[in-house]
Fold Phosphoglycerate kinase.
Amino acid sequence: MKTLNDFNFENKKALIRVDFNVPLNDKFEVTDATRIVSAKPTITKILEDGGSCILMSHLGRPKGFQDEFSLKHIAAKVEDILGVNVKFVLDCIGADVEAAAASLEPGEILLLENLRFYKEETAGDVGFAEKLSKLGDIYVNDAFGTAHRAHASTTIVAQFFEGKKCFGSLLAQEIDSIKKVMETGEKPVLAILGGAKVSSKITIIENILDKVDHLIIGGGMAFTFVKAQGGKIGNSICEDDKMELALDILKQAKEKNVQIHIPVDTIAADDFSNDANKQVVDINAIPDGWEGVDAGPKSIKLFHDVVLASKTILWNGPLGVFEMESFANGTIELGNSIAESTKNGAFSLVGGGDSVAAVKQFGFENKVSYVSTGGGAMLESLEGKTLPGIAAILE
Ligand SMILES: Nc1ncnc2c1ncn2[C@@H]1O[C@H](COP(=O)(O)OP(=O)(O)O)[C@@H](O)[C@H]1O
Ligand SMILES: O=C(OP(=O)(O)O)[C@H](O)COP(=O)(O)O
């Protein structure tokens, strides 16, 4: 696995695929710059070596050239975070871009326009990838968030850099964190899966049953397991067509010696709204007209004990409807438990969509070992897939 340290970038132009797909508000201001901050170590190392950086990224899912998706909106933020002047070109291929890249001096940074303004990017077009490849001497992939896409700039371009391609430090760190959970982590290894649906996590569950000692199934997806075992779940969300599968997962877990922990109680609400009436009830005795929306106190304690006994922890998916203040407590308490366990020496990885949002919203970002910068990319990694962006560097 080639990393930045395998190269000296002196007088070299690094063509770096970053994931600067960051959220913007209606004034086109960056509202969460995590992905830009996370790319800084790679860029700094290359500049310190005496090289220059050509940064390429997508932003959103534009249909052709659309001003609102221009990377010009984020150029100043990138400059601010890197602390180095950033040159910006209004295209990502073509004569102007080639001239700008050719005249780049050591220590300088060039930011290209949104790659997805060309449909060839997402189509993985070889000709488009070849044009990009002309811009740099060494290809660095640091875009973990987009590593599950076999696009021109994330995957196809790598074939033009035989022996001259490597992982950036962010991508290497993401790979390492996943490896810690899936392969090398200190036991006991715990995975906590929450969120809304069993169906979106099936492949992950089946893949990690071979890797973990404990599995907490929380959030909305727990109710499919509870109902499948004969529990009364009222109006709680449930995927009836996945009940058989839930029973099969419980059976597989037993065979594989994995201890599964399902909530024993829940906060039930009489309406799916923040000001609904609520009551604590046993998970398998939810009255008609009520639905489970958050972990109950006994479950929080149970999960706390499992988390504190674990040395390696993966967390994906909230334990309740955390977007509503009234039902955020279980997710916050789980965050507190993971923070405490991390302080005691456990390795904790948080990844995938809403759990990362929850971790940031409730201030746990610096209290866990690692927060992934990838949503879909992290979920696909946990499913056991080799991401095309990663495979292309290894080839
Ligand atoms: N008991 C519940 N009932 C309904 N929705 C829930 C419940 N618990 C969690 N959720 C919802 O699950 C969603 C996140 O699910 P999911 O997308 O699978 O997680 P992630 O994005 O972290 O992988 C959140 O919007 C949250 O409100
Ligand atoms: O933000 C991203 O994905 P994510 O929301 O799954 O983390 C990546 O930049 C990939 O974007 P895409 O899903 O439009 O290919």
